[in-house]
Amino acid sequence: MIVRPRPHWIHLLFVRRGSLIRLIWQQQLFIVLWSCAVVWVHGQLFLFKVTLNSSPFSLMGVALAIFLGFRINASYDRYWEARKHWGAVLVEARNLARLALASIAPPQDVRPFVLGLIAFATGMRNQLRGQPAATGTEGLLPPEVCRQLEGARSGPTLTLLWLARWLQDRQREGCIDGHKAQTMDTSLNALSMAFGSCERIANTPLPFTYSVILHRSAYVYCTLLPFGLVDSIGWMTPLVVSFVSYTFFALEALSDEIEEPFGLRANDLALDAMTAGIEAGLREMLGEVPPPPMRPDTQYRLS
């Protein structure tokens, strides 16, 4: 995810990173060359004059823009829902650490549980990105749990199971009363709910036919548009068509990118930073020095 100060408006015109140019430059180049060819032959195709004007494109453009807006909204809803679930993980992890530290003494006895919460957030990131379950969990869980994570299909589920068993053991030993244990178990259920909701987003993309219809409509529109403009604006046709096609192609590419918000692309969620933030907050509650915060992008000029 790109996190940086908003650049000056002039610099914003030439920013490359996050502008999706790298994804659509080939389509843009094709449309510009195609528009130049249409202007060169004066709107003729195989010796036949293509009799189009701007009227049908006005109607088609409005319909395509509305359809594209629905696609963007559907993708952003998935993106924002995923962000809210990660916010819930942060809140519930802090609540669990606070209740455990306030109820059980000394804090050294609670440290494995708090580190387990960090391991859950780390494992959740790994699961959503398709990485090995044990990545980044070294030193956070008991050795036997780490061995279970190797090759596990759902590492966060195993981590939650260990956390629940730890809580049951403390209740059985009389270190925590039944009411607080029930409250903490409710927070563990909330963590499981957040993880399951993120899995639903990751494993259930938008219908493929939806993308196909939008993709075909945008390309047909931009391919025919030069024929409707060449008689009225002449050599300005490639410029106008390139601007219109950039808008449609970039919005389509953006909707495809944020539809799956858990990846490593520029506009995906900053899962590494969020996991590091959870770890920093929990380690501070343990009285430890947290790792340095992840710095946002600073080199934003023309990049």
What is the fold's blueprint, element by element?
Elements: H1 9-14, H2 21-40, E1 44-45, E2 48-49, H3 54-103, H4 107-129, H5 143-149, H6 155-172, H7 178-203, H8 208-233, H9 237-259, H10 271-285
Antiparallel strand pairs: 1-2
Helix pairs in contact: 2-8, 2-9, 3-4, 3-7, 3-8, 3-9, 3-10, 4-6, 4-10, 6-7, 8-9
Q: What average pLDDT do the residues reach?
A: 86
Shape: elongated
Looking at how many chains there are and whether they match, the oligomeric state comes to single chain
* Strand order within the widest beta sheet: 1-2
- SSE order: HHEEHHHHHHHH
- Note the beta-strand portion: under 5%
What Rg, in angstroms, do the CA atoms define? 26 Å
User: Strand tally, please?
Assistant: 2
Number of helices: 10
What is this entry, summarized?
By secondary structure, the protein is mostly helical. The chain has helices at 9-14, 21-40, 54-103, 107-129, 143-149, 155-172, 178-203, 208-233, 237-259, 271-285; strands at residues 44-45, 48-49.
Describe the structure.
This protein is an all-alpha fold. The protein has a domain at 81-205 and 270-297. The protein has ten helices and two strands, in the order ααββαααααααα. A two-stranded antiparallel sheet has the order 1-2. Helix 3 runs parallel beside helix 9 and helix 4 (107-129) runs antiparallel to helix 6 (155-172).
